[in-house]
Amino acid sequence: MTVITEQELTQELERLRPFHHSIELPYGLNTFDSAMSRRPVEGIRVDSFVRHAYPTLLDRYGGTLAGKRVLDVGCNCGGFSFEAAKAGAERVVGIDLADRYIEQSNFIRRALNFDQTEFRVMAIDEVTPETVGSFDIVLCLGVLYHLENPVPAMRSLAAVCGDAMLVDTNITHHRWLKKPFWRTNVPAPGRGDGTTGAWRSDRAVFQFTPNSAAVEQLLHFVGFAYVTRLPNRESSLDQRYKKGRRATFLATR
Fold first, then answer.
1. Residue 197 pLDDT > 90, yes or no?
2. Nearest to 21 by CA among 59, 78, 63
3. Which of 3, 96, 181, 191 could join 101 in a cystine, given CB atoms 3.0 to 4.6 angstroms apart?
4. Whole-number Å distance between alpha carbons of 122 and 48
């Protein structure tokens, strides 16, 4: 077991900030600093989403992820990976495009002594059974609407997923449109400072945001027999869920 002193923990927190997930650390410390956050929702994102979505996922496995292997795609600093580990997962692999996020994740891993977690700099199109292995569960949270090529990307994730995929995504919400639909988005280039992924890099990107029907159709297309859109039962979820601009789906074999 690696023991990190309070002084070492504080120094690393200062060096690696800002973090975009709020994660409790030893000595009463926390990764989140409201003064450095991009949006207030970052302070509640992990906690509220876990209370919103993880109960349905856990119910599938009798209330625990014991013995399960989990892949967390676009893991950021690892908030959802660590929650999977807390739920008993045997192995958790988090991947992200940003070196900084993986450095943050590995720092938190050491601080919390979650030896069953592992973090890698990796793109979705590099994900294969040969490069990462196979998983019972794939977490695809806040990723789908950033993709330039969503169909092959989701097919790659489905190829390493043996049972369930949890997908949380912005959606295009039109009350009158019931058929599958994808809206294009060309965001302005970001800072390119290594703190964000390719969707906010210093190069131009072309993204696709689906409506709810398109998410369900895509998940069926890549091989999942059942797709359920989860109800918004958690009151602290941000306004995007309440206004129908974001949704969570559980796809299972």
1. no
2. 78
3. 96
4. 27
